[in-house]
Structure formats: structure tokens, C-alpha cells
Amino acid sequence: MLKLGLVSFLTDVSSEMIFSVFAVFFTTVAGASSALLGLIEGLADFSASSLNYLAGWLSDRSGRRKGFAVAGYAFSTLAKLILVLSTSVLALSAFRVIERLGKGFRGPPRDAWLSAIAARATRGYAFGVHKALDKAGAVLGPLLAYALLQHLGEHPGTYHWLFAIALVPALLSVLLLTRIPDRPEEPHPRESVRHNWQQLSPGFKRFLWPAGLFALAYFSLGFILLRAHAIGFSVAEVVLLYALFNAVCVAAAPAIGWLGDRIGRPRIVLLGYAVYGLLNLWLAWADSREEIIAVFALYGLFYAIDESQSKAFIADLEPARRASAIGVYNSVTGVLYLPASLVAGALWAVAPTWTFGLAAALSAAAAGCFLLLRPGGALAHRSPG
Is 113 exposed, middle or buried (0-12, 13-18, 19+ CB in 10 A)? Predict the structure, then answer.
């Protein structure tokens, strides 16, 4: 578990060095519009989800996890070479989309690998620890970016150095992953995609409805970074806000996982919907630096819930075909992230408050749908152990 977490740590140091400056660099240095940013972020989320089900199905069919995870991490690392060669709008757009393809291919096999290592009674805590290590890299990455911007200044040459340095931890993560032994599970060699879908549990399929509604509310964090920049934070300060968001996630993720193991993950999923809805309501009216700082801290809490505990919840619902179920979930939500980001970008051009208001309304709708369908059973249910 810890070795897989270290792989994610190194990968996030690399990726978040880039992502912490990407939205501002894309729109202010490269000269792209906010509408194009919404399109590219939506396409990136879509590309991340496009291979999820295929990767999960192939992994469950073979019973193996490691080979698929290595291929995904390696592909994302190679995509980062684009930024070393060019920082045009076209190159930046291509990098953002292509790099996410690797994430889509590695995610379900890696999460199934992790869920096989962790006992069910402590699965939420295991996913929380993994997410904490993952986001610890997302704290260090923005801090390294901030140090470079402060030392070299905010000009195009600095970004070239930043992108080149970010490639190093990505290469190290792939090397480390190749040294971790696989944890094969029971294969399903004759199972077609159609039969695989038919075998997934009814509870998991019910969960896809509120998850899909919530995905429509889930626009890119890049828009919140732009909000901070518009209020008056410099690019370097925006990077520090991004580090704050990740630091809160690191601190909260293990505790949230521990709590989910004891009170039941359905309650934790609902908590995530509620926190996201509240922070969007706050963003609709926040106009001071202090409020933006608090919003970024709250966003870190939400991310600790959503990114780790939804996967642990799916592993509970679908123990026999975890990689496939996680792949389906990622595919469904990822497809919906594209219209979510497109609508967010269009509304942003009219008034940012409209973007945040719609996200809050959809979060409330997702929570209502979850309570109606009860995919994990009664909310009073406790996870085993």
C-alpha cells in the first residue's frame, strides 16, 4: 500500500507542478480564452475516462493489475515531453488531453490492486492513506513551482524550466512501480464486455445515477484558480493556494477514511455532496482574499472525501469485479465532465456566479437522488469491522 502511495506521490509532484500554473499560463501567457480552457479541461476529463472501462475489464479478465498500471503511468510521463518541446496553445491543449489518457488507463487496475491489498474493515482508511500520499505530492509540486517562479520570475523562460524539472519525478515513479510485485486476483478469461456489465451488482448500478448527476456539477478546479487570480492573487500566490488545497486533503484523507469505516461509506459520500454544494454557494459571493483562502481549504476537505471514499464505496458494492466497476464509474462521470466544463466555461464568460450556482443546485440534486435510490443500503448501515 505504501509503495503504491509513493508512486502516486512522485507522479503528483510532477503533474501538480504543471497543473498549479496551467490555467493561468494557458489563458494569460499562451493567450487562450476561458471558453477554450473549459473545452480543453472537459476533453481532458473525457480522455481520462475514455479508457477506464476497457482497462478495468482487461484487468479483471486477466486477473492482473501491475502491467496495466505501469502502461498508464508510462504514457502520462511520455506526454509531458510535449511541454518540454513546445508551449503553444496547440501543444498545451494536446498535452492536457493526452496526459489524461494515461491516467484513465492506470486508474481502475491500480485502485483494484489497492483494494485487494486492504482488508474490507480498514479499506476506507487504506484509500485515505493512499490519497494522502498522493496529495502530499500535490503539496510539494506547487511549492516547487512557487519557488521557481519566485527565484526566476514570472516569464515564459521560467515555465520552460518548470515543465522540464517536472518530468524527473514522473520518470522515477514509473521506475519504482516496475519494482513492486503484482497482486493477481481470480481471472475471468471468457467474460465479454456485455457479460461483464450484466454481472455488476444492482447497488453499484444504482450508484451511477447520483454519481452522474454530481459529475455534471464537477467543473475543473482551474476555474476556482482563475477566480482567485481575478480577485487579486498573483500567479505565485495562486500556486500557494493550490498547495493549501492539497495540504488540507493530505491531513483530512486518512481521518475521513477512518470515519467511513466506522459510520458507513454512504454517509461519507453524502457528506462529499453537501460540502461541494456549500463551497460553491460560498464561491458565488466570495469577494475577499480571506474568503478565497477558506474556500480552498474547504475544497481540500471535499477532495479528500470524493477522490478516495467513492472508490472504497465501489469496492464494497462490487468485490468480484472491482476494476471493471471503478472503470465504469470513471467512464460515466468522465463523459459527463465534458459538458460540465463546457457549460462552466460558457457561464463563466457571462458571470462566474452562475457557474457556482448551477454546481450547488446539481450537488443538492445528486444528494436527493442518492437518498432516494440508497445504493449502499440504509444510512444507518455500518461497514464490516
Answer: buried
The answer to whether 138 and 244 are in contact (CB under 8 A) is no
Nearest alpha-carbon partner for 333 in 124, 108, 57, 32: 108
Record the cell numbers describing residue 347, joined without a space: 457561464
Task: Name the burial class of residue 53, with classes exposed (0-12), middle (13-18) and buried (19+) by CB atoms within 10 angstroms of its CB.
Answer: buried
Q: Is 30 helix (H, G, I), strand (E, B) or coil?
A: coil
Residue with cell 460558457: 346
- The rounded distance, in Å, linking the Cα atoms of 225 and 229 is 6
The three grid cell numbers given for residue 321, joined into one nine-digit string: 469485479
Per residue in 148-179, pLDDT (tens digit) is 988 887 777 888 899 999 999 999 999 999 98
Closest CA to 242 of 253, 228, 256: 228
Which three cell numbers mark 189? 478469461
Q: In the structure grid, which three cell numbers stand for residue 20, read together? A: 498549479
Q: For 345-363, how does the pLDDT look when each residue is reduced to its tens digit (9 = 90+)?
A: 888 888 888 988 999 999 9
- Supply 315's cell numbers: 469496492
To which residue does cell 478495468 refer?
Answer: 56
Q: How many CA atoms lie within 13 A of 22 on its CB side?
A: 30
Query: Nearest 5 degrees, angle CA 70-CA 314-CA 277?
Result: 105
